[in-house]
Amino acid sequence: MNVLIRLGYEIEITCDQPTEVIALLDPHPDFAGSIIRTSGLQVSRSVPNRTYADPYGNSCLRLTAPAGAMRLSRDSLVEVDGRPDHWDETARECPLSALPDEVLGHLLASRYCETDLMMAQAWELFGNVAPGWTRVRAIFDHVNRHLTFGYEHARATRTASEAWQERVGVCRDFAHLAITLCRCMNIPARYANGYLGDIGVPDNPAPMDFNAWCEVWLEDRWFTLDARHNEPRIGRVVIARGRDATDIPLIHSFGPHLLTRFRVWTEEAQETVAR
Q1: pTM for this predicted structure
Q2: 94, 116, 190, 268: which is deepest, by most CB within 10 A?
Q3: Backbone angles phi, psi at 91, to 5 degrees
């Protein structure tokens, strides 16, 4: 059974001078057929904009923000699978020689995932764990226990090895550390972000909105796992996928900008859609 999710954002930035901006805020092209309706992109200033596909297949908004404040907003209704993330306890690791060419790059180090610094630690912890799903679950269980979540711990420059040492972080830090440990064990892993509401779970005093998680390659496909929540969840709507957060920032500006408003919503919609 599918579920309807109302999601959207209202984000305002202020720039001292005209500044080129790239934003990844809307559902991934994979969800194009799932969008029931949308307000369309609303821009508070008359600014030409366009979208393009990056090397990972993500949809990116490109524009030049004028000097002063500029607000971006959109409200959408999306229909998604109402089942939790699919997990497969029988999934096996794929031999390196059989990995698809496009997957192989997700074994390499990246800006926030320093496999060279974590290699010895990873093999000490997981080298004797049965390969496949058992090893992947051991990695995610370990990261979930090792890090303490808290919004007050957010730091945009924290890497996986720093999160390991500091033992704190937000969802992106949980994802980066799990990805790094998987890559160290020759298991391809990539970073994903998107909308994730508190659907099918107890009410949360700090409700979810944007979130980051992981996708791990086992057998012949990607599996979604989340080191912070560490359980299958309902209603993920992917915005973008990449090697780590460097590839898919929500907003990247080629010059200073100040974030002056950030409101996001993700909630199950209580309405009926005509068929």
Answers
A1: 0.95
A2: 190
A3: -65, 135
